[in-house]
Every structure is written in structure tokens, then in C-alpha cells.
Automatic annotation (TrEMBL):
Protein name: Tetratricopeptide repeat protein
Signal peptide from the UniProt entry: 1-23
Taxonomy of the source species: Bacteria, Pseudomonadati, Bacteroidota, Flavobacteriia, Flavobacteriales
InterPro entries: Bac_ResReg_Asp_Phosphatase, TPR-like_helical_dom_sf, TPR_rpt
Keywords linked to the UniProt accession: Cytoplasm, Membrane, Repeat, Signal, TPR repeat, Transmembrane, Transmembrane helix
Keyword Lipid metabolism carried by entry: no
Membrane-crossing segments per the record: 339-359
Family according to the record: Belongs to the Rap family.
Source organism (scientific name): Ulvibacter antarcticus
Length: 374
């Protein structure tokens, strides 16, 4: 009877713990679902909710990793690369615990993205190649197209800076093709928009004006499907550049003013800086000195602030890399220290034996000399 009561008690406690774990997991997942909708439009709120999800006790490793990823991406959308990298690096400690291959691909892509933002391209490529290898070997290719798209666009960014736009366009096109296969998920329209926008930028650099205009229009179309104000504004900025090159300064200003309205709630320093530069350039072309002075001053102010943020982020990144190398060296010391001591002892013993043999040989030689004398 006592044994039965003990078993019943264990079952009740086990069920209570399981219920608690499920409730914690459900709460964390619900919070992260909200976060994914807010990352680009209200990153501060997204960070607040993601931190809450991360700190929930008993949540799974996958949930904690996704929370850290969301925080990193949200800081990146604010152009705070120092904080973004900080949270991306925190994810690395979870990598050995991640059993889900697709989550591991995503984590590697995201860490690579932060290094790409900081222009530490060798480190970025290292993570992207590791992720790409997992993607290529994954049996269900349809389910990893979003990850392939992200990996490809990041490579496009890197090769645009390291090499040229002709090479980068190959990767932007590859990213578009991959993301177009994922549009059953509405949010993926935003990613297609980003790819078309960057494709347009490269085409504009190559003076392929008409093709660039088509890319920007596609970017606007896909961003409007998810009402992503910041992405709409970026694409409008690109379209305005086309109008400027065509000499339609008034048309360009109209598009840029519309973009400013879309960008108001986002607070993206780089976006606003680009819009202010575009407006000042067009007003200068129209000899409107008053408006040129206003927007040029705003541009220079944001330029200074952006450079300061980038410098802080790069310093933090270099510090992290230095600390990482120091840990590696310390581990090598711990690993090879005993081996080195052993080698020294062996060499010492060999030397002693060698000296002993020399002494013995000398004694034998002296004995032989004495015999010969006698």
C-alpha cells in the first residue's frame, strides 16, 4: 500500500513538473511569435519582449537561442552593431547543445551576418561556409530555401565590397530565387524586397539604369505586401536615385519626402542619412540653397553619429576576437604543457645517458692506454 502511494506521489510530481515545463515553453513561444512581427518596425519593443522570453525558467535551448537571435537582429536593425554582435557571440556557447540542424544553420548565418556588418569579412565567410555546408547536405532542400537565401545575400554583400557588383549580382539573384520559393510564409516577402533593393543598388552602380528601376519597383511591391515601412523607404530611396540620374530632381524629391514619412517611426540612422543626402543633392541641383542647407546639416549630423557607432562596434568586435585568441592560447598551453614537461624530462634523461656513455668510454680508453704503455 505504501509502495502504491509512493508511485502515485511520483506520478503527480512528475506530471506537475511536466505541466510547468510545457507552460513555460508555451509562454516563451508566444512571446517570440510577437517579437518576430516587431523586429523591424519596433525593435526596442522586440528586444524587451525577447529578453523576457529568454529569462523564462525551464525554456528549451532552442527557445533561448531564438530569443538571443531575435535580440541580435533587432539591435542590427537599429544599427547598434556592438550590441548585436554581443548577443550573437552569446549564442556560440549554445552551438554544441543545438541538435536541430536548421537552427544551427540559422545561428551560423546570423553570426556571419554580424561580422559582415562590421566588415570583418574573413570571419563572416568562415561562419557562412560552415552554414552552407550544412544547407547543401540537408535532405529536404525545400525546407532550407530561406536559409540558403539569407546565406546567399550575405555573400552578395561581402563580394560587392571585396570584389565587384558583377559577382555580387550572381548571389543576389540566387537569394531572390531561393526566397521566392518561401512565399507561403507571408513574412518572406520582406526578404525578397531586401534582395531586389540590393540588386538594384548594384545595377545602378553598373549604370544599368532601367534594370535598376525595375528592381526598386519590385522591392517596393514585395515590401508593401507586409507593410514594412523601413523597406518601402529604402526602395523609394533607390528609386529616387534613378530619378536624380535621369535629371528629374523634382520627381526625386517627391519620392524622398514620401520615404521620409515611411521612415519616421523606424529610427534607422543609415536610412535617414541616405534620405537627407538625397534631398540635399536634389535641392542643390535646383539651386534651392535654403533647403539644401537644412538637409545637408541633418545628413552631416547623422554621418557623424553613424561613424561613431560603427567605431564602437568594431572596437568591441576586435576585443572579442582578441579574448577568443587568448582563450585558445591558454587551452593550448594547458593541453601541451604536460607534453612539453615530459619531453624535457626525456631529453634530460637521454643527455644523462649520453654523458654516462662518454664517461664509460673515456674510462675504457684510459685503461686501454695504460695496458698499451705497460
Amino acid at each position: 500500500m505504501n509502495r502504491n502511494k509512493y508511485i502515485q506521489l511520483c506520478l503527480i510530481v512528475g506530471f506537475a513538473l511536466l505541466t510547468q515545463l510545457c507552460a513555460a515553453q508555451k509562454e516563451a513561444d508566444s512571446l517570440l511569435a510577437i517579437v518576430n512581427q516587431l523586429i523591424y518596425e519596433d525593435p526596442d519593443k522586440a528586444i524587451e519582449i525577447a529578453l523576457e522570453a529568454y529569462e523564462i525558467d525551464n525554456s528549451a535551448v532552442k527557445t533561448k537561442v531564438n530569443a538571443l537571435l531575435a535580440i541580435s537582429v533587432a539591435y542590427s536593425s537599429k544599427r547598434d552593431y556592438q550590441k548585436s554582435l554581443e548577443y550573437a557571440i552569446r549564442i556560440e556557447s549554445y552551438l554544441p547543445k543545438i541538435k536541430n540542424e536548421k537552427l544551427k544553420m540559422n545561428v551560423l548565418n546570423r553570426i556571419g551576418a554580424q561580422y559582415q556588418e562590421l566588415k570583418i569579412h574573413d570571419k563572416a565567410i568562415e561562419y557562412l561556409e560552415e552554414s552552407q555546408l550544412l544547407i547543401e547536405n540537408y535532405p529536404n532542400q525545400d525546407s532550407v530555401q530561406a536559409l540558403l537565401g539569407y546565406n546567399s545575400i550575405l555573400r552578395g554583400f561581402i563580394y560587392r565590397e571585396q570584389m565587384n557588383c558583377d559577382i555580387a549580382l550572381t548571389y543576389f539573384t540566387k537569394a531572390i530565387d531561393a526566397y521566392l520559393q518561401t512565399l507561403s510564409q507571408t513574412a518572406m516577402n520582406a526578404n525578397v524586397s531586401i534582395c531586389y533593393y540590393n540588386q538594384g543598388n548594384c545595377l545602378l552602380t553598373l549604370k544599368r539604369i532601367e534594370e535598376a528601376e525595375n528592381s526598386y519597383l519590385e522591392a517596393i511591391k514585395y515590401s508593401e505586401r507586409v507593410d514594412a515601412k523601413s523597406l518601402i523607404a529604402f526602395a523609394q530611396k533607390g528609386l529616387a536615385e534613378v530619378k536624380t540620374l535621369e535629371g528629374d530632381y523634382t520627381g526625386s524629391i517627391a519620392i524622398l519626402n514620401s520615404a521620409l514619412m515611411n521612415a519616421e517611426k523606424v529610427g534607422d540612422l543609415v536610412l535617414n542619412r541616405g534620405l537627407y543626402l538625397g534631398l540635399s543633392t536634389n535641392y542643390l541641383a535646383l539651386n534651392d540653397w535654403e533647403n539644401y542647407t537644412v538637409f545637408n546639416s541633418k545628413y552631416l549630423e547623422l554621418e557623424k553619429e553613424t561613424k561613431l557607432n560603427e567605431r564602437k562596434s568594431i572596437n568591441q568586435s576586435l576585443l572579442s576576437l582578441t579574448e577568443g585568441k587568448a582563450k585558445e592560447i591558454e587551452q593550448l598551453k594547458k593541453r601541451f604543457g604536460p607534453i612539453q614537461i615530459g619531453l624535457v624530462i626525456i631529453i634530460f634523461i637521454i643527455l644523462l645517458m649520453f654523458i654516462r656513455d662518454i664517461i664509460i668510454s673515456e674510462k675504457k680508453l684510459k685503461k686501454l692506454e695504460n695496458k698499451l704503455k705497460n
